[in-house]
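Fold this sequence, please.
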Amino acid sequence: MSTEPQGIKLPPYPYDRLGPLKQLAVDAHGAVIDLSVGTPCDAPSEAVLLALAESADAARTYPPSIGTKQLRCAAADWFRLRLGIEVPVSQIAACVGSKEFVAGLPHWLRLRDPSKDTVLYPEVSYPSYAMGALLAGCRAVPVPMDQHFRLDLGAIDPQDAERALCLWTNSPGNPAGGLDDLPAVAAWGRKHQVPIFSDECYVEFTWDGPAATPGQLPGQSILSSGLDGVVAVHSLSKRSNLAGIRVGFYAGDAELVSYLSEIRKHTGLMVSGPAQLAAVAALKDSGHVLQQRERYWSRLGRVSAVLNSIGLHAPLPAGAFYLWVPATNGDAWGLAERLATELGVLVSPGEFYGSTAAGFIRVAVVQDEDQIAELERRAQNL
């Protein structure tokens, strides 16, 4: 007698669940204003487009999995100029966007130390941290957060710390925009001998807090307190509107970066040659990032004003480009349905980001000025 395989049972992909809400918006307004997924809508810089246009030679051959020397030097320069941190080029490596790194990391770390089986991650966070643990057959243990959506390190169970493969921090955070105390997180990791992985893909959209050096923009990396035991993960998707070319990089602890880059080489994980050239151009150009900061800050203010005008409380975040809005009576799906019907706007219910987030919605201010103006017009006509 045959039996059903008892393999992994995957949950539905969160954003696939938004179909009925999208249809409500279309039925009510003829077109949806999609503020559900953090997909950039703005054009990449001219320098990036030129690099892609001239990338024929890079497309012919296999690129180095660790990243070209040119890309890793550009990343090292960016760390120094943007964040005031010196990182040796030998301790920087490329990844195929940051999401694959996040989702694959528990598997690679479990191979490194089979005695550990736990991934610690923020209880309100992007779902890939927990999903990576699930896909590796590990325990996904959420770390409580305080009222500002910062990691509460004191709430971590010592037994979980003993079993931990790593602790993830995401600062600025998705979805709530909180800023962790990164030096404290690094110190906790060193004390408990738990590797810290810091997802910093929104660092250039930090709105609050001090700059690394005078004259710089706000933003902090886990590497600011030293490289031992910590790895920072960065992406070109958000800061340079390059989500489609899938390129990021990770940097920090020499042994961790060396181990991960070597094991990833054996699995064939590599950023395409043209994408690496585009990333070099993007990292060398800060002007387009300053323009993008202005766009997102303006959109945050305008969408916040719309939501406040219909009786919601939509505070501006400390970082990233999401509004994290509490739902009336804690009914996030009900609020998402209301917004789809009244304004034709699609948002993400908070349960996508953890069970304790179920009373919120996330609003991604990623649409262009015409779409934001249309949202304002619809709100005025209510």
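The chain has two domains: 14-43+288-380, 46-283. The domain at 46-283 is CATH 3.40.640.10 (Aspartate Aminotransferase; domain 2).
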